[in-house]
Write a structure and sequence with these properties.
By secondary structure, the protein is an all-alpha fold. The chain has four helices and no strands.
């Protein structure tokens, strides 16, 4: 029995890409001004999340060998700028 449909894998892959980009953004913000210990802790958590992402991608390839591809979990990344703007104003750079 398959654990997810291919469409679910595509949605999960997109969610992981968004989560990764948010985490990297936050790690950079938290790690500023000598607070690297917090950024480092968050980086370790992101490593755990990335391992889960990799494991799920592996499952997808086992379940859908003809349809699976690495782009689903690691391909084109969405632009999260608009998502970030929902939470706070981004200064012009």
């Amino acid at each position: 029995m398959k654990s997810h449909t291919m469409d679910e894998y595509k949605e999960i892959g997109m969610d992981f890409k968004i989560l990764n980009d948010f985490m990297v953004h936050l790690i950079v913000k938290v790690g500023k001004y000598g607070k690297l210990k917090y950024g480092d802790k968050m980086s370790k958590e992101l490593d755990k999340i990335n391992q889960i992402q990799s494991d799920l991608e592996e499952e997808m390839f086992k379940e859908y060998p003809k349809d699976a591809n690495t782009e689903i979990f690691y391909g084109k990344r969405p632009d999260i700028t608009n998502l970030l703007k929902e939470y706070y104003e981004i200064p012009n750079r």
